[in-house]
Each structure stands twice: as C-alpha cells, then as structure tokens.
Amino acid sequence: MQKYKILKDVLDFAKNKFYKHDIENPSLDMAILAAKALGLSKIQLITKEYVSFDTLSISDDKIQKFLYFIELRCKKNSISEILGIKNFYGLDFIVTNDVLTPRPETEILVEKVFNYILKNNINNIIDIGTGSGCIAITVAMLLKKKRLENLKNIKILACDISEKALEVAKKNAKKNGVLDMIEFQKSNLLENINKKYLENACIVTNLPYIPESDAKKMSEEVLNGDPKLALFSGKTGTDLYEKLFTDLFQENSNFYNINSCFFEFDSGMNTENIQKKYYENLLLNKLEIGNNDISFFEDYSGCERFGKILV
Ligand SMILES: C[S@@+](CC[C@H](N)C(=O)[O-])C[C@H]1O[C@@H](n2cnc3c(N)ncnc32)[C@H](O)[C@@H]1O
C-alpha cells in the first residue's frame, strides 16, 4: 500500500528529498518529473495552480513511477537521462548511457555550419563523433526545410567509433523523419570513411576534449551519465583533434581535398583558453594552414569554443 496518495504530500516528500541530496534546482526538476510521471501540467506544477492541489488523489502506479524518478535524480542522474529525451534545436533526441546528452552550446556549431553550407557549394557533410546524431540530424532537418534545389544533392554522413551510439543516432534520425537523408558509418576518425565522401566535404565535429586528469573535478551527474568515450581525449584533451587535423592537413595527406572543418573544443571557461592556443599553433605552424583560413567563434558565455578551418 502506498504511503502517499495526495498530490501535495507526494510533492512535499520529493522536495524534501531533493533538498537533502543537494539537487540544484529542486522545484523545477520536481515539476518536470512530476509532469511526466503523474501526467500533470508542468506549468501548473511550477505555479502551484492546481485547484485540487491539497486533495488530488494519485493512483499507486503513477506514484511509484514518480518516486522511482526521484530516486534516480537523487543518485545524480540528469533529467534527460531519467526521461530518456533531450531537446536540441527544437527537436527531441533519445538519449541513453551510450551517448553524450546534447549540450545547448552545440546548437551554435550547427547554426554556423548551416549558414556556411547555404553560401558555399559543398558536396557532403561529415559529422565525426555523431553520438546521439544531434548535429547531423539537425543539419538534415534544416536542409529539408529549405527545399533549395542546389542543396538537394548534399550527402550527409554520420560517423562514430561506437556502434551503440550509432544505433541511438539512427533511432533519432528516424524519430525526426530524416533517416533517408543520412548514412551512418562506424569509423575511428577518418579510418573507414570512403574517400568519395571527403571530396569537397564540410566536416563538422564535436569530438571528446576533456583532459583525463579532469575526471576528478567533474560532477557525478556528468561522470555517471555520459560515456567516457564521449568525454576524454588523452592527457591534455587534444589527442583526438590533433590526430584528425594531422590526418586531414599533413602534407601528402590522402584526405586533403575537403572543403572545410568546423569543430568544438574546451574554451577554458573564462580562464586561459589553452586548447585554442594549442590548435592555433598546430594548424598554423605545424600543418601550415594560412592565417586567414582559421577563425574562432564564441559560445553563449562569450568564450571562444569553436574553430573553423577553410581549406
Ligand atoms: C563529445 S561526444 C559528441 C556527440 C555529439 N556529436 C554531440 O555534439 O552531442 C563525442 C563523440 O565522439 C565519439 N568518438 C570518440 N572517439 C572517437 C573516434 N576516435 N572516432 C570517432 N568517434 C569518436 C564518441 O563515441 C562520442 O559519441
């Protein structure tokens, strides 16, 4: 027999538990989880506008579901992991433990790439490290909406080293109605990518960029929720991009005929932007890309987090 039956009691119980477990936004999180589990309006839960707030009786199975969600949140699972869905650029994406939960700042990367594609004649878009597929799928959606004749022939390839991530990405492409616009390929960076795809391609990539030693400083929420494969990239966080850029731009490279590459990296969050300096040096001095062909742009907090390389 359930101990709690009335909406107010259930919510009070959850709220107290959240305070005890130091959950950052207890009221908002509770409203989101209650709305989903109990089938109520999120807005009304937040504004406490339920007329029958003190009397509304909730069925046992709904309460069980809600209490289960509360338990997961107290164990520091994120809201998107609990619900299994994350909104990105207005689209819903399935998220599991096999993929990184899409981050809002990556929407900026998508927007920049899409604006670039509109103005430049490119053959293909290659998303390296696609994860949930949020970049490739959103670009596909935007292209679909434009219905421009010259964009119809652009092919989209979504790659990842993780088979499980690719399965999630395919489900998301289907969910968002663009499965027929995207090819999926298991590949360690460029390894299995057919050269025909690299011809005049725009590469867009959000590869792992966190230094391994930072794991100690990271929140349980991120460490438990996102796969390690999606987070870390060697000692300084730069291993994967260094390998990718060297493969792409080294003299005599097999892959030199791409058009451009957009990438996301660690901005250093108001401290010294170490990774930006590292990539600048690598691209300008070691790989001899021209100064005018490299630029950086900012995220919502004004930190340079994205790079653009024109070839
Ligand atoms: C930071 S997540 C980004 C996921 C998604 N693109 C996004 O922006 O939310 C990085 C992704 O790169 C993949 N990855 C890691 N190492 C890789 C490699 N060597 N080659 C290809 N993909 C890799 C991971 O599996 C993960 O899905």
> Average pLDDT across residues?
90
Give me the strand/helix succession. HHHHHEEHEHEHEHEHHEHEE
Q: Approximately what portion of the residues adopt beta-strand conformation?
A: 5-15%
- Termini separation (Å)? 67 Å
Main beta sheet, described? 7 strands, mixed
**DSSP, total strands:** 9
The structure class reads alpha/beta
Brief overview:
The protein is built from twelve helices and nine strands. The chain is of the alpha/beta class and 311 residues long.
How are the secondary structure elements laid out?
Elements lengths: L6 H14 L5 H13 L3 H6 L12 H15 L4 H5 L1 E4 L2 E4 L11 H14 L4 E5 L5 H13 L8 E6 L2 H13 L6 E5 L8 H4 L2 E5 L14 H6 L13 H11 L10 E5 L9 H13 L7 E5 L5 E7 L1
Parallel strand pairs: 3-4, 3-6, 4-5, 6-7
Antiparallel strand pairs: 1-2, 7-9, 8-9
Helix pairs in contact: 1-2, 1-4, 2-4, 6-7
The site of S-adenosylmethionine has 24 residues, from helix 7 and strand 4.
Q: Characteristics of this structure?
A:
two-stranded antiparallel ribbon; 41% helix; alpha/beta; elongated; binds S-adenosylmethionine; Rossmann fold; Helicase, Ruva Protein, domain 3; 311 residues; seven-stranded mixed β-sheet
Describe the fold and architecture.
α7 (134-146) links the parallel β3 (124-128) and β4 (155-160). The protein is α/β, with parallel strands linked by helices. It contains twelve helices and nine strands. Strands 5-4-3-6-7-9-8 form a seven-stranded mixed β-sheet, sandwiched between helices. Strands 1-2 form a two-stranded antiparallel ribbon. It is elongated, with a radius of gyration of 22 Å. The chain folds into two domains: 7-75, Helicase, Ruva Protein, domain 3, CATH 1.10.8; 94-310, Vaccinia Virus protein VP39 (Rossmann fold, 3-Layer(aba) Sandwich). α1 packs across α2 (26-38) and α2 packs antiparallel against α4 (60-74). The chain starts with 6 loop residues before the first helix and ends with a strand. The model has no long low-confidence stretch (mean pLDDT 90). The site of S-adenosylmethionine (SAM) has 24 residues, from α7 and β4.
